[in-house]
Automatic annotation (TrEMBL):
Domain P-type ATPase A: 133-247
Protein known as: P-type Zn(2+) transporter
Subcellular location, record wording: Cell membrane; Membrane
Enzyme class, first EC level, given as a word: translocase
Family, similarity comment: Belongs to the cation transport ATPase (P-type) (TC 3.A.3) family. Type IB subfamily.
Organismal lineage: Bacteria, Pseudomonadati, Bacteroidota, Flavobacteriia, Flavobacteriales
Length: 658
């Protein structure tokens, strides 16, 4: 009856009206006022019956107004849902001249729903409030003058001046000054992060590849110094706008439980209608008036409306996602939330995820009598063109430690996935990468060099070879250190019941083992090409049914997409990671992982509680009303009570703490 994907949740009223946003609530209250007035007139005065009847009819109007609007809207789309059932019940009550009970029904139903939408809006508001974080205007430098303009009017490459302790108005790069910046609005981290101006702004790489300590984001708060920021993203494309957009879209992604309850409702509602229709005619079988039969049928109709069931899951999903967003974690929908709450296996990428991802250069040795100065120039020039994290570190350390300047002779760099790079230097080919790359390209290596490499790998250094004109000319090694938080986080995950954790890396097996040992991980698979990571995930998925893959999106996006839940770290600065992941940690704090998993589990258990409560109430009320155990008023009170109960239960998630 109802379409699978109706965008608006059953109880998510967006009605406005004469009294603004709260009109629905005021109408419900007015309905109550007239209901009680009718009751008083009827019981306590000698006024004619038409006086109390009039009052009840007005109560019908106020109580039924929004319900009718909503029901009509849905019927137009071919959906018959709870609102419709309620209206039928109220009309039935009027027909058997039980105006009083009909008015009570519409009053309680409308007040229940108004409170419900208030509660659900509360969860939504906490999501939307993220969007209010960006400032309205920016101070733009125009020649010697500074002008204040609305942030929507900022152009790319404008220079924005940010005063101390004010909000930053654009995503961009610091070109002057340095400051420590509070990024809590995006990453959830309360500790300010030190940021500095970039040296030169010519030939800027992509936004994703600029060093994070040069970049600032819209809505974050400047520290004590004035800084100048060159705008690199239009206001509509800023990280925070995209974040808000993604969070508000998550509602359209139904969770498995939501789909299940929708399916259940699909056959349950017609069954109820059939049952109620049959009950209308019970006076033919048992000794009662047709009015009594109708009364019973109406009570059953009220009792059986699966209101609580319909709202139980969406309210929990919404609250869970809102809570995560507050801590800088974007969960893209109910599916990701529920999956994350039930998995026990996690795969991690190594570089940049379990390690800092900022390795230090430990060796740069020229081999085979190649001139050292030239060797270093070649390496610097080639690696300058690569955006691999290893390359960035090599370039930085060559410049700062060995004072290499380079000759800018390299061109045409090509990444060879999982192996290294190939580039052109002065017309000849340079290869930098692991042993496999050299084997593939038939570059001869001596026994002595192999031994030297093995020693380095053994002790956890990532070793690379450099070939030029088909000859080996040198050896490089770098050492990455595990994140300080990696070991405690893994332990925490084990404590909360994650059974299997494994590292997947493109680095050498020995390096993988060495890092794994340092952080207390028992499983590590090295030498994996990006496609091998995908295969590894597939195998693990078969074994454990659900698996999360935590990565930074650099060479693990395909693996993340294959896993049940892809979790991206440090997503604030990476569009790829933000797009591919199901869950994005905006900061690169791996210690947020136990928090999101805990939150997802809590959400899942609240969803379960809500389902049981709503099903149990329906299971209790249907037989009770059939036996005449409660009046229409009693049925509606229990019905609405249970609906509010599940919503309030869901809202507890907004206050979740690990
Ligand atoms: N720009 C580069 N310069 C030198 N070596 C490289 C470069 N890119 C890749 N390599 C070599 O290829 C190997 C595999 O790279 P890949 O990007 O697949 O994984 P990784 O960065 O080592 O680790 P992880 O898979 O954990 O992110 C590296 O360990 C390195 O030896
Ligand atoms: Zn409704």
């Amino acid at each position: 009856m109802s379409k699978e994907h109706s965008e608006n949740e059953e109880h998510n009223h967006k009605h406005g009206g004469v009294f603004g946003k709260k009109t629905e609530l005021y109408f419900a209250i007015l309905s109550g006022v007239f209901f009680f007035m009718g009751l008083i007139i009827e019981k306590l005065t000698n006024l004619p019956e038409s006086a109390s009847l009039g009052s009840f009819i007005v109560a019908y109007f106020f109580g039924g107004y929004f319900t009718t609007l909503e029901a009509i809207g849905k019927i137009r789309k071919g959906e018959f849902e709870i609102d419709f059932l309620m209206l039928v019940a109220a009309a039935g009550a009027a027909y058997i001249e039980s105006w009083e009970e009909g008015a009570l029904l519409l009053f309680l139903f409308s007040i229940g729903h108004a409170l419900e939408s208030y509660a659900v809006n509360k969860a939504k508001k906490s999501i939307e409030s993220l969007g209010n974080l960006s400032p309205k205007t920016a101070l733009v430098k125009k020649g010697d003058k500074i002008e204040e303009v609305p942030i929507e009017e900022l152009q790319l490459n404008d220079i924005v001046v940010v005063k101390p302790n004010t909000k930053i108005a654009a995503d961009g790069i610091i070109v002057k000054g340095n400051s420590s910046i509070n990024q809590a609005s995006i990453t959830g981290e309360s500790m300010p992060v030190d940021k500095v101006a970039i040296g030169n702004t010519t030939n800027l790489p992509d936004f994703d590849n600029i060093e994070k300590n040069n970049i600032v984001y819209t809505g974050t708060i400047n520290g004590d110094n004035v800084i100048e920021v060159q705008v690199l993203k239009l206001s509509a494309d800023s990280t925070i706008s995209r974040l808000v957009k993604m969070v508000s879209e998550v509602e359209t992604q139904k969770s498995p439980t939501q789909l299940l309850t929708k399916k259940f409702e699909k056959w349950f509602v017609p069954v109820v209608i059939l049952l109620v229709t049959v009950l209308c005619f019970s006076y033919l079988v048992i000794d009662e008036t047709y009015k009594e039969s109708l009364y019973r049928a109406i009570s059953v109709l009220v009792a059986a409306s699966p209101c609580a069931l319909a709202i139980s899951t969406p309210s929990a999903v919404l609250s869970g996602i809102a809570r995560a967003a507050k801590s800088g974690v974007l969960i893209k929908g109910g599916r990701a939330l529920e999956d994350l709450g039930s998995l026990t296996t996690i795969a991690f990428d190594k570089t940049g995820t379990l390690t800092e991802g900022k390795p230090k250069l430990t060796n740069a040795i020229a081999l085979n009598n190649f001139e050292e100065g030239e060797f270093l120039d070649i390496v610097l020039d080639v690696e300058k063109l690569s955006n691999h994290p290893l390359a960035k570190s090599i370039v930085q350390d060559l410049k700062s430690q060995l004072k290499v300047e380079g000759k800018n002779q390299a061109a045409d760099i090509k990444a060879i996935q999982g192996k290294g790079v190939n580039a052109n230097y002065n017309g000849d080919v340079v290869l930098i990468g692991n042993e496999r790359l050299m084997i593939d390209e038939a570059i001869a290596t001596s026994k002595a060099i192999k031994n030297q490499m093995d020693n380095l790998l053994q002790s956890g250094h990532t070793a690379m070879l450099v070939a030029y004109k088909n000859e080996l000319i040198g050896l490089l090694s770098v050492m990455d250190v595990p994140r300080e938080s990696a070991a405690p986080t893994l332990k925490r995950l084990k404590d909360i019941g994650i059974k299997k954790m494994i590292m997947l890396t493109g680095d050498h097996q020995n390096v993988a083992d060495s890092i794994a040992k340092q952080i207390g991980l028992s499983d590590a698979e090295g030498n994996l090409l990006p496609e091998d990571k995908v295969t590894a995930i597939k195998v693990l998925k078969q074994q454990y049914s659900k698996i999360a893959m935590v990565g930074d999106g650099v060479n693990d996006a395909p693996a993340m997409a294959t896993s049940t839940v892809g979790i991206a770290m440090g997503a604030a600065g990476s569009d790829v990671a933000l797009e591919t992941a199901d869950v994005a940690l905006m900061s690169d704090k791996i210690e947020n992982l136990p928090f999101v998993i805990g939150l997802s589990r809590k959400s899942k258990s609240i969803i379960k509680q809500n389902l049981w409560v709503s099903l149990a109430i329906v299971a209790f009320l249907i037989p009770t009303t059939i036996m005449g155990g409660t009046s229409i008023g009693g049925a509606i009170a229990i019905h609405e009570g249970s609906t509010l109960l599940v919503v309030i239960n869901a809202l507890r998630l907004l206050r979740y703490q690990l």
